[in-house]
Amino acid sequence: MDRVSTGNPQADLILGGGFPANSINIIMGQPGSGKTVFSEQLAFANLAARPVLYLTTVSEPLPKVLTYLQEFTFAQMDAIGTRILYESVADAVTKGPENLPDRVIELLQQYRPAIIVFDSFKAIGDLMPDAATWRKVLYELAGMLSAYDTTTFWIGEYIADMVPRLPEFAIADTICELTREQHGTRDDRYLHVIKLRGSAFLDGFHAFRIGHGGLEVYPRLSSPPAFGPNYGTHESRLTTGIEGLDDLIETGWLRGTTTLVNGPSGAGKTLLGLHFLREGVRHGERGLLVTFQENPTQLARICRNLGWRPDETPNCGALEVLYTSPVELQIDSIVGEIFRRIDKSNVRRVVVDALGDLAGASRDVLRFRDHAYALTQRFARQNVTAMLTMEDVRGNGRSEVEPMIDNILLLGMLLGDTVERTIRITKTRGSGHDGRRFVLRITSDGIAVDKRV
Amino acid sequence: MVEPADDNANDGPEPMTGPGALILVVDRDPHVKRLETYFLEEAGFRVEFADDGEDAIEQARRLRPAIVITEILVPKRDGLSVCRILKSDPRTHHVIVLVLSILAAEDRAREAGADGFLRKPLNDTLLVDCVRRLLQQPMLAEGQIHGSR
Per the CB < 8 Å rule, is B122 touching A22? Predict the structure, then answer.
């Protein structure tokens, strides 16, 4: 089956390659959800010999549509009027809604478009005198659009509970919903495929943002993609760069494993992660520090105080930093960006500091577990060795992601006349380990495990 | 009922194949008929319709069109059967048959003796190009068939 690209590779992935060609598709969502941007991006991605016909109806006036369109980088202004044709069917519809099929067939015969967009289609339905007339108009329109070699998009301010009630949804081959949800002080946007006739698609809610380039979509991740490297069966070791730690595990520290570093604030989690990444850089392995805690200035200060060489510190080139304020954190976009950077830069070591911030940005616990699972499986599949820090806010050293984790390091702080930090290995998958509690020393030289129990 | 082929029937004059050539469209979808008519007439052809397979055979014998464009899924007698009858009847064996169908049935169309096959939905450029090619070079080597998609 031929496909029509959305102009966004990630949205195409969700749709199993794009919208089926010669289909009738509904793009629905409340005002401001991004429907028009989505359809405009699609239109400009499909400039070919036959034009795209963009029909405005009785919703947004054409000058308004064109004014805002020019703000987007995908808008090729020289294509407007030649390969993207704007027409209005407002007159025909207001004179008599039942005139719509005849007006559309005239436009088909005149322009022979490869794609037709009706924006807003719901506004046409709202003008119908009764449901019976609307059904008749829809039947005529759908028959005519299906007879000709064109792919149709009906854009409308529909909401979810209209789907089982309105006849246009029974006709449509694809139904895509764009939603907008408040999450704290931030709005999160999601793309949701409700129906895609005759094709497999990625179900669930997929986050997206709207930027100057149009929609940036982040497919929901719950398992590693079917492409890319397979899970490795060859076990090789690495050094963590934390003095005294590696030989506490019988097999040594295995590549492709994920370690949870759990402990209270100030226990040394970030320092542990930084040492782990610096060790990678020293061995020619690119690293990625995903941080929601320390900003780049704070990280530079920590490394400077430890006397680290500039070429071993974050943002040195071999060690990338992905810093996002927890306030602006959208879990799907961050996880998508982590995967993108791993692929692009061949990253071998990753530290996420801290996993709890990702959990806080998630809509619910289940969704967070999906993401944590996706992260650990992707790391294993690509032989990336990872450390995920977690603030022990409950004080019991437990976390809901533990079953997905290969190794767990539990950090502690004993508060007496002095602060004494401790480290203990509580889990290593498939290997014996020394589970005693050791002192974790932080000095101006860095961090080290003191073998005196 | 359609009459059986009559081997003794007179072939009569060859149909006109240039500009103004007559095309018989066999389809029951009003939208396809409307669009086909528009695009074919715009390209300079004359168009007549048949709503079912038996009507198609009767009209083909009577009107002697240059081309019959038929859907497979038509009432009374399917488009492939229409094609076989036209190709086996001395009165119509010279009529070019183009199958234009929603079904992916190019092989079946070829076996039925069709000269061309196109898959729906209707693409005006493909349709007119195919009709023109068929009119210019109707006879192809055995097994070959005009059209695409």
Answer: no
